[in-house]
Predict the structure.
Amino acid sequence: MTDKQLNFIRSLVSERELPTNDRGVYVAKLVAGNAPEPNVTQSSAIIDWLLNDVPRKPEADAVPAGRYAVEIAGKLRFFRVDTPTDGKWKGRTFLNEIFGGDFDVDDSRGTPIRSGKSEIFAAIAAEGLDAARGRFGREIGKCGCCGRTLTDEVSRASGIGPDCAEIHGIDREALIAASPAADRLAEEAEQDAYQQAEIDAENAWLRAAEAPTADDLGFEQWERSRGVDITDPQSGYDRELDEHGFPVGY
């Protein structure tokens, strides 16, 4: 085993969760200096095992996978966080900053952030995970959780789609109420209600204006259009009619 191999094994072990089986126990003792050193070939096999089969430790200060918008030093910045759950990258947290351009749901474009991740994670946590996700969705027009395009009114106003809200337990109405656009949305809703009331009133007037009158139909047909049967003695219209077809005294 070379010094370079030993140092690399120590670095890998510091990032990973060693299993408690015989190989894991041996490697733990090896990096502590309490086990016989393997030869070069055996060391290479240990390195391959650590790289491909041993999951990384989760980052203590990382945030869950998703898309976030947060102000840092007075500038609004957009981030995507990915946390693979299988494969050789299982347990890793990848942080990318998004600078512009459209992107698909599974697109991983962006600039990787390798230094200063803790500060960014802390800013997102301070903003609130749901709030930062919601702001991303409102600003970009794509869900702050899954990245799909938002279309319905509540989704666009909250920044989160209905499926993701249910999966992650996100209160979309609370996000809308807490957003800077809450007052504007309430004003728009009030204006919409007022406009609808005007439309309803105008439609009612048009229906009344277009309704036939007695002059249009003649007395008998007009009354029938109102649901009155003037031949019924109870109707009060069994009187002599004048030259215009109206009951005398009507």
Observations:
- The chain is about 50% helix and 10% strand.
